[in-house]
Write a structure and sequence with these properties.
Blueprint (H helix, E strand, L loop, with lengths): L1 H9 L4 H6 L8 H15 L3 H10 L8 H14 L7 H7 L8 H14 L7 H7 L8 H14 L4 H10 L8 H14 L7 H7 L8 H16 L3 H10 L8 H13 L4 H10 L8 H13 L4 H6 L8 H15 L5 H5 L3 H7 L45
Amino acid sequence: MKERVDFLHTLGLTIEDINNYPLVLGCSVKKNMIPVLDYLGKLGVKRSNLTEFLRRYPQVLHSSVVVDLAPVVKYLEGMDIKLNDIPRVLERYPEVLGYKLEGTMSTSVAYLVGIGVSRREIGGILTRYPEILGMRVGRVIKPFVEYLESVGIPTLAVARLIEKRPHILGFGLNDRIKPNAKFLTEFGVRESFICSIIAQYPEIIGLDLGPKLSKQLSFLTSLVNLTHEDFGKVIEKMPQIVSLSNAAVVKHVEFLKTCGFSETQVKKMVILCPQILALNMDIMKLNFDYFLKMGRQLDELVDFPAFFTYGLESTIKPRHQMVAKMGLKCSLAWLLNCSDSKFEERMRYDTIDVDEMETNSSFDMNSLMRPMNNESDSEYDDDEDSDEEYL
């Protein structure tokens, strides 16, 4: 007994840890503990992570390497998890070593593939979030999928969200996701926009959202006199606003004021295009400098603040030069708010048809079917342990 206690102490375990799972004292050091630890070490589990590993899953010390552990590792490799990623998976979720191969693990993966998750993405999904292997389909995964479908997100779009952000499956449906959807409606978001908000920014359903919304509304009200109704519109267009740092918002508002916009104008611009509060400041300055060279009035930017979101060299400058060369006069929206092919078509017109104007559309759910753009020029709080990015 003393030999076993002393050995467990060398692994970093305390008397309290042993008391939490006293059956560990039934393990032989030479026959059980050392073979298991040697196997984990050969797989690549770090010695520095071993203590926490054993605290979370001390039952591993009872396991047989040949009968229990090796088959699970082989199964994980069969799920396209790379061998050098196995240690990362085990360190993050050691409990996986105790699951039956034909039980929860196989059914959860089969269900995900069944709703449209790409089979070739399974390895990466499980590497990033192996907890999926322990989730029961009927209790966790299926209710999650069905809820997102109920708010208007198509099944295939849910599958794409899981591919890109598998950790969202870990957000509690009843204690986090549904309450957060209710919070959004309480802060002015229309129910019909809940689906696009989740699709744009999936992490929002896992945040401690109520306090964040209250804090951000109070801040924006004091800064640009945003009303409760205005705040709902802003969230619908850019849900990431809930995670923008105050410092970033202040910096962007101050920049707009130095450009000559009044507080009332800034408020209108924020409501029309809240993305201007998260754009790269250097890009905004370059765009504004060129706007002045275009000889247009500031009121035009107030009506179309999305001007700041377009690429200067790729879109704004060449289109402006083409229009100027033809001697046409048009609004910023007519100039920019269309595809390149549509713009080329417009350049063949004799006159400008204002009725043909394209309006700013809401989030396109079909965009989930396209590869994610990983570039980010935004400035979010870094106090959330999530993959936040400005789209």
